[in-house]
Amino acid sequence: MNNSEKEIIKHIHLLAFAEDEGEEEGKAIAQLAAAFLEHPDTISISAERDGKMAGNVLFTPFYFKDHPDKKCYLLAPLGVLPEFKGQGVGTEVVQKGIEYLKSIGTDAVFVLGIPTFYPLLGFVPTDINTPYPELLTEPPAWMALEITSGITQKLSGSTSGIDAFMKPEFWDTSGRG
Predict the structure, then answer these.
(1) pLDDT at position 176
(2) In 10 A of CB 53, how many CB atoms?
């Protein structure tokens, strides 16, 4: 991926989150996306509309201390340019991403997200620990999608993501509605 594509992806996340959550949140998520894009194991999936990139989702590795052989990812962030919201772009990039993750032998995908959207794509609430379980005040927001059937029943213990994702504020659901 070249620098131009990275800048477009950052811009998508900036605009998507600024519209929904405010300018400061947009800047924070754009910076987070930039940090994720620097990690060699990040998977970036985009969709185009009208000849331009309209949406993007990133998947980063998610680790289980007691199960280092399991291949899991976190889905975040998912951003769609405001002018393309409501047109299936978010669903498209997530579905394309899941298909790609299946093709590389992924066991499960986790997301801390909107409990009314992600279940439409097969995600279900999970009791697997986030890296900061004490900050999960909205349990329905923490969801998993099993790619290997029954895998979540076999996973337990402490978890972590890539360094850029290991700040407590990214896992605190107390301010989310």
Answers:
(1) 59
(2) 17
Q: Convert the pLDDT of each residue in 34-76 to its tens digit.
A: 999 999 999 999 999 999 999 999 999 999 999 999 999 999 9
Domains of the chain, each with CATH number or no CATH: 3-170 (3.40.630.30)
Q: Residue 97 carries which side chain, given as an amino acid letter?
A: G
Find out whether 36 and 42 touch, Cβ atoms under 8 Å.
Answer: yes
> Residues in the chain with pLDDT < 70?
176-177
Torsion, Cα of 153, 130, 47, 81 (10° steps): 150
Distance in angstroms (rounded) separating the CA atoms of residues 28 and 21? 11
Spatial separation of the C-alpha atoms in residues 44 and 76, rounded to whole Å: 10
Give DSSP secondary structure letters for 151-164.
Answer: GGGT--S-EEE-GG
